[in-house]
Amino acid sequence: MMKIITLLTDFGSFYPAQMKGVILCKLNELIAPSAGSPSISASSITFVDIAHDIPPQDVRAGAFALLSSARYFPAGTIHIAVVDPGVGTDRLGLAVESGGQFFVGPDNGLLLPAARSLGQPVAYKIACKFEESMSNTFHGRDIFAPVAALLAAGQNPSSLGPRVLPKALSFGDTKKTDDGIEASIIYVDRFGNLILNMQKLPGFDVSLKGVKLKRVRTYGEGRRIEPLITIGSHGFAEIAVNQGNAAEAFRLKAGDRVELEEI
Amino acid sequence: MMKIITLLTDFGSFYPAQMKGVILCKLNELIAPSAGSPSISASSITFVDIAHDIPPQDVRAGAFALLSSARYFPAGTIHIAVVDPGVGTDRLGLAVESGGQFFVGPDNGLLLPAARSLGQPVAYKIACKFEESMSNTFHGRDIFAPVAALLAAGQNPSSLGPRVLPKALSFGDTKKTDDGIEASIIYVDRFGNLILNMQKLPGFDVSLKGVKLKRVRTYGEGRRIEPLITIGSHGFAEIAVNQGNAAEAFRLKAGDRVELEEI
Amino acid sequence: MMKIITLLTDFGSFYPAQMKGVILCKLNELIAPSAGSPSISASSITFVDIAHDIPPQDVRAGAFALLSSARYFPAGTIHIAVVDPGVGTDRLGLAVESGGQFFVGPDNGLLLPAARSLGQPVAYKIACKFEESMSNTFHGRDIFAPVAALLAAGQNPSSLGPRVLPKALSFGDTKKTDDGIEASIIYVDRFGNLILNMQKLPGFDVSLKGVKLKRVRTYGEGRRIEPLITIGSHGFAEIAVNQGNAAEAFRLKAGDRVELEEI
């Protein structure tokens, strides 16, 4: 049996590797001869890094990246996600099952949009204690990684603690204005594309800061350096500059509100 | 049977993970009991990320990174490479076999230098249709990833479509000048080393912007902060500043032309 | 038998993939039918990237990242680490065994703090020659990668060459001053946290550049934008700005000396 474990964090480098080391150690322990017939060997773990460059502590950007990605993984995949400004406070840790996949991470809304996109999420509080001397600043390594190993070894998430209602997360509302629609930028990718909290295009032509955005199905339909609006591959509206950088051209960044004016 | 799948893109984070998810899903499908005796299990896939930080839409830089790396992989390796400014237009998708390795990606020259470095490339147009609702902006996930899974499962690239002549890519010419040689910078690595479109050093001593470049076999031969020229580990000429940063020192970047003057 | 191979370099992208390719090729060779009964198949290799964004040629930062991470990996793990300003000179290459784990890399102090943290290191000079035409600038690929494959295939490090005394590395001393303690910044992480060469907090309250640092066990104890000092998850003292960036706030960087004044 192969198990896929994905990781999504705002940690940059070397901390994610520590999480993988802990998972591999814990799995070795769980499949040791004394632990009886192993249901999995550590060699059958496939790690997939989703992202470790989420803007520091930007829960919404992390939730967007996880939401965009989870649907592409097979049933049984375990996603560990850690963007966790509240680490060390009394925020809960969660294991969530939805649509046959599992999500492990802090109860701050990070996991929920992805879990909801797959089905009806069932969430459990991580109540079990871990023997190891535990860091107060790195629950990704000290709690969520061993929990992922337990799930990979076949343990049921319901064994981790009581069922709870997870915290929701909103990507914010769009607002009808006199001139069009106001929306928020939830993510800026490395091409400078601006991803909005809208899952369909307005029913009319729009401009941004006085510049017309050509409605296209694909970037190839735009001329070089022409500003476009499209539904991106993630299912959200996206403002792009064909072969250019929309974030630089419009001087916008994640978190900014924008008004799309009807023209 | 182990299968190695490498990925090279200009996507930064989270999109490459989606490609891996699709490959794992597709392989699960191909090896399902109803699909008969599996020739491969998804657990025997080893993913290797070559690079996801290719400068956006810089096909030449991507081609250089792939060319530098492919020769180090064993026969049977499948390389997916996606630097794809023409996505959504009528540019073809290709599966190329060369020297026992496979390359999957857009027909824009990205794959060809690497494929040629291994042998005589044989290229097939990807003509098969994929059931899934397909994005217009992300063929890496929606076409090239499932094709890589098919190849990993043992399908012959000739089954994907008709044989075609792939588009070539040139790293540009060097030019003899009155004073020496003119060349192009095709890549700047994170040490600030300038990689030129030349595969051997000039037959004479040279200077760049009036500064002598010491010809060395290894950086250790240079003094601290001394400008050097050498054949890098990738086989191309490389201008470096020992324990410094040549791109900053000479104020040069990828795409710039440089003149190496004979001294 | 699963084998874990970690990689830590200052190479950025595409060079680490070449190292993985070489390891996979070499393992294929070692387990070929003519090589007798295989003790490992390449499919049972799990690669874990610790970091490839170590500041160029900063041996101390690399040593810190390796030291912080090695303890989380199971016995038998092979760590390749390459931050190597002296490549091509007469510095030795090492294979080091400590606490059941293995370290492969240059003899410049990079490996030693991590190896020492696990037990009593036993170091061997890499004296064996490799047939392949060898680059003078990339021992990570041409020497350390094949050595890691040999170790993964079960070869004893003592077969590589004679036992040697490895070069030590110091993270530098802290110094008692009239007003408090002087220490060095050995690493700045992507949150802007400043990691100091001290493994316990001073026995008194301190300020930095006139700003009081609140002593906390967890970031959650600080108010928003409050400067903190804590023992980080890596076991070193760390100066942070809660939900902010200490490196920017205090205008400090790796390598800087700081004075923590008693208040």
Shape of chain A from CA axes? elongated
CATH architecture of the largest domain in chain A: 3-Layer(aba) Sandwich
Q: Strand count, sense and closure of the main sheet of chain A?
A: 7 strands, mixed
From the N-terminal CA to the C-terminal CA of chain A, the straight-line distance is 56 Å
CATH homologous superfamily identity of the largest domain in chain A: S-adenosyl-l-methionine hydroxide adenosyltransferase, N-terminal
CATH topology of the largest domain in chain A: Rossmann fold
What is the number of helices of chain A? 5
- The residue fraction in helices of chain A comes out at 10-25%
**Largest interface, counted with CB-CB under 8 A?**
A-B, 34 and 32 residues
Overall tally of domains of chain A: 2
- Name the strands of the widest sheet of chain A in spatial order: 2-1-3-5-4-6-7
The arrangement of helices and strands of chain A along the chain is EHEHEEEHEHEEEEEEEEHE
Regarding quaternary structure, how should these chains be classified? homotrimer
Structural class of chain A: alpha+beta
Strand content of chain A: 25-35%
Helix-strand layout with pairing:
Three copies of one chain form a homotrimer.
Chain A: E1 3-9, H1 15-30, E2 45-51, H2 59-70, E3 78-82, E4 93-98, E5 101-106, H3 112-118, E6 122-125, H4 139-152, E7 163-164, E8 175-176, E9 180-188, E10 194-196, E11 206-208, E12 211-215, E13 227-231, E14 237-241, H5 246-250, E15 257-262
Parallel strand pairs in A: 1-2, 1-3, 3-5, 12-13
Antiparallel strand pairs in A: 4-5, 4-6, 6-7, 8-9, 9-10, 9-15, 10-14, 11-12, 11-15, 13-14
